[in-house]
Amino acid sequence: xxxxxxxxxxxxxxxxxxxxxxxxxxxxxxxxxxxxxxxxxxxxxxxxxxxxxxxxxxxxxxxxxxxxxxxxxxxxxxxxxxxxxxxxxxxxxxxxxxxxxxxxxxxxxxxxxxxxxxxxxxxxxxxxxxxxxxxxxxxxxxxxxxxxxxxxxxxxxxxxxxxxxxxxxxxxxxxxxxxxxxxxxxxxxxxxxxxxxxxxxxxxxxxxxxxxxxxxxxxxxxxxxxxxxxxxxxxxxxxxxxxxxxxxxxxxxxxxxxxxxxxxxxxxxxxxxxxxxxxxxxxxxxxxxxxxxxxxxxxxxxxxxxxxxxxxxxxxxxxxxxxxxxxxxxxxxxxxxxxxxxxxxxxxxxxxxxxxxxxxxxxxxxxxxxxxxxxxxxxxxxxxxxxxxxxxxx
Length: 394
Ligand code: SAH
Known about the structure:
It is built from 13 helices and 13 strands. By secondary structure, it is an alpha/beta fold.
């Protein structure tokens, strides 16, 4: 494990370019089968390209191999050619942390030195042997939601399909879950709820999720994948039609005045438009509901009147409401609602006929809970100080 913080970040202006950036070999991760076939052709192969692409796909996503050497169904000559002209990327694990509750967080570094976090949340019942991977779609986020740590991060860029799929691959590597099991999976669900706004990077998220859902690879059903958005209204319909994954909406407020303040994207796509897009989401029914996420901020959005207004807003939409007690971060401007306020809110929503679970914060001790992800160099330095202090104490 290489520590990025210790090395400092290198960029084009700051120092030598990381080796991976100079690598001229084509990365096969994140490509469609057709693109893999085209890459074979570019390497001078001309026979049975589709079949070869299928075989490679199986090795990459069913078996999870990271070297061409291991692809024993390919001829030795082809393996050598692939090793020369192609590569199988993985984001580099900069830091791996485990919470007291079993939640695991990986700080990952991509080829250009940028960082993002991925979180694995095992089911609260360890006997269940299931778990959810919370995947990032961007380095940082442009949305600046007031209560979210990621929104305070300076640098933002979209993650590529390889970098999004790469998070799943790294988690499966770390969980030791290859070849892809059909049952009893530790990584049983995916939520696009990490850093970034997935609907602002839809092309890449879509390519990545299609790879994850592909039956001859990781083969995770769309029913086990949830995409969460702060409400990029024009992309919602397409998300449902093209991917058919479950939708979660970060609603968080019931009036435009409050939502403009805490989710500034609301100024562009106000609540009424967002609700209309939700009502039109393809494939909705009682078995497939929209999840409305609602962060509980003390004295901001947590009154019984807010709860009643929420129920009115979502009336008629097959929905459940996920109440998320606010997770604080250094310098955050809000407080978590009291347990009494959360309970009263939940009861009003429940009485109106909607499931209204309160999400237990997971991985709080390693800053892995909702809205706590942030991976800039400032936090890195703080983490290093902490580690140094821990090391000194032992
Ligand atoms: N941009 C997408 C994906 C991020 S998902 C979206 O907005 O949905 C992360 C979820 O955690 C969102 O519902 C977000 O609003 C919520 N969240 C952000 N900061 C939080 C905090 N400090 N405490 C609790 N939930 C938070």
